[in-house]
């Protein structure tokens, strides 16, 4: 023990004393100038120690359900599954793996953050927030060559959300639905040279809202978009608290069939619609990404106000009031004209043009559809005989392509909005946890106190015994 302490003391003195060479034989170097120049020690007398690299930290991992999603990533019929990762030290990640629905999936890094410039004052500066995007492909045919074990994972404590966090942040991601079939248990693993960190991916599905008057054909179009044409009973829908509102998912999107607009209560209906759209800014699970205005080709377009007067604004379609609410929140909308075969062929073009002009709809976002089979009775060809011509479903796929096209244009904005929302939650969580730790009174460990008292008593008793034994030894001497 003495030799160990002496060696440690020599090492400590060599490192801490400025007048002592930090390495053995360093005092002989002035005699060898060429060796000094070769080793680069001619101008420095000390060795600068390098910093230990901190492990990567994943703040958020977010994604939206890709368009055309059918339950498995990497399919040709669906868009790529993009995952945005935000954190610190992401440039250190040399391997990214994805675990989805019980399977290891292939990954491809689309964008890698650059290594931040080195600064000697890094301890006093906040780390730079970095962003990485990966594409998740189909499941691997074989498990990873280097499987991740619990020993290789860096344990990270995530404090739960408390009531002191801002209510608008807490409600931002609360909702009935946040994922889709095949996106359960979605975890991302990032591995550096020394450690592996993981983060559960937060998934959001985009919502498309159907808006129209009574008899516009919203429900039949809703069923057609879900693929339930001709089915009276379909179970792939969820009901809101309002029984007149239905919601179902198809192709990675949630379609919402809202109650028909009642023109008798137009003011209250407009207020309800405004609150429904505004709830998305405080609740991303309820955010409306697109509105489909449904108009029946055989119906007249009601105007508001009904009576014209010089003191009143010029009449406009009643549903324009709802579209104005959507425009105020920068929510895009498209138009679906239903019941195509309810009018004669020579009247279709005129009525379609009139509806597009009334609602100021662009031809690129307007589609004429027949969302359910339409039966057209023909005249009697023979006594007691009648045949019916069945007009097939048309235009639904074309309408779906328009929906996907509009949402693709907004995809980057949607991904960034989701990532920023989750980051606000994480930062608020950490801030709340830090404040709670500072406000918590320090706890005195009873065991440490008892040990200190025992040590003090033991030391005092030892001193007393030493004095007594010394006195007794002195008395025994002649």
Automatic annotation (TrEMBL):
Record's keyword annotation contains ATP-binding: no
InterPro entries: P-loop_NTPase
Entry keywords, A to Z: Membrane, Transmembrane, Transmembrane helix
Spans through the membrane: 448-475
Name of the protein this chain belongs to: Lipase class 3-like
Keyword Transcription regulation: no
């Amino acid at each position: 023990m003495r030799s160990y302490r002496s060696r440690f003391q020599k090492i400590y003195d060599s490192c801490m004393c400025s007048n002592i060479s930090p390495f053995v034989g360093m005092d002989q170097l002035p005699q060898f100038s060429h060796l000094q120049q070769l080793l680069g020690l001619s101008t420095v007398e000390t060795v600068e120690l390098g910093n230990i690299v901190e492990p990567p930290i994943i703040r958020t991992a977010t994604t939206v359900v890709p368009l055309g999603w059918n339950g498995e990533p990497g399919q040709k019929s669906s868009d790529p599954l993009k995952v945005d990762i935000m954190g610190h030290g992401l440039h250190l990640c040399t391997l990214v793996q994805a675990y989805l629905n019980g399977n290891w999936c292939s990954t491809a890094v689309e964008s890698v953050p650059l290594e931040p410039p080195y600064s000697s004052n890094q301890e006093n500066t906040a780390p730079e927030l970095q962003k990485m995007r990966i594409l998740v492909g189909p499941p691997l045919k074989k498990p990873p060559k280097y499987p991740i074990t619990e020993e290789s994972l860096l344990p990270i404590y995530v404090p739960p959300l408390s009531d002191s966090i801002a209510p608008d942040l807490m409600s931002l991601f609360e909702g009935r639905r946040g994922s889709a079939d095949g996106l359960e248990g979605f975890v991302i693993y990032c591995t550096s040279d020394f450690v592996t960190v993981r983060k559960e991916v937060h998934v959001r599905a985009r919502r498309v809202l159907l808006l129209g008057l009574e008899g516009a054909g919203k429900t039949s179009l809703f069923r057609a978009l879900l693929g339930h044409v001709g089915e009276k009973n379909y179970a792939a829908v969820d009901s809101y608290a309002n029984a007149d509102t239905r919601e179902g998912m198809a192709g990675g999107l949630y379609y919402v069939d809202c109650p028909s607009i009642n023109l008798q209560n137009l003011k209250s209906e407009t207020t309800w619609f405004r609150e429904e759209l505004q709830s998305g800014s405080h609740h991303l699970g309820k955010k409306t990404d697109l509105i489909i205005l449904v108009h029946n080709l055989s119906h007249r377009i009601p105007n508001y106000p009904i009576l014209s007067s010089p003191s009143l604004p010029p009449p406009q379609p009643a549903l324009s009031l709802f579209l104005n609410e959507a425009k105020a929140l920068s929510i895009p909308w498209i138009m679906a004209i239903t019941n195509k075969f309810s009018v004669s062929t020579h009247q279709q073009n005129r009525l379609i043009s009139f509806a597009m002009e009334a609602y100021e709809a662009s031809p690129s976002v307007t589609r004429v559809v027949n969302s359910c089979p339409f039966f057209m009775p023909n005249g009697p060809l023979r006594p007691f005989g009648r045949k019916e011509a069945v007009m097939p479903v048309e235009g639904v796929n074309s309408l779906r392509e328009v929906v996907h096209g509009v949402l693709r244009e907004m995809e980057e904005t949607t991904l960034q909005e989701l990532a920023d929302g989750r980051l606000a939650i994480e930062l608020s969580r950490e801030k709340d946890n830090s404040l709670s730790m500072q406000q918590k009174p320090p706890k005195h460990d009873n065991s440490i106190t008892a040990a200190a008292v025992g040590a003090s008593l033991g030391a005092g008793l030892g001193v007393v015994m030493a004095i007594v034994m010394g006195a007794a030894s002195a008395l025994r001497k002649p």
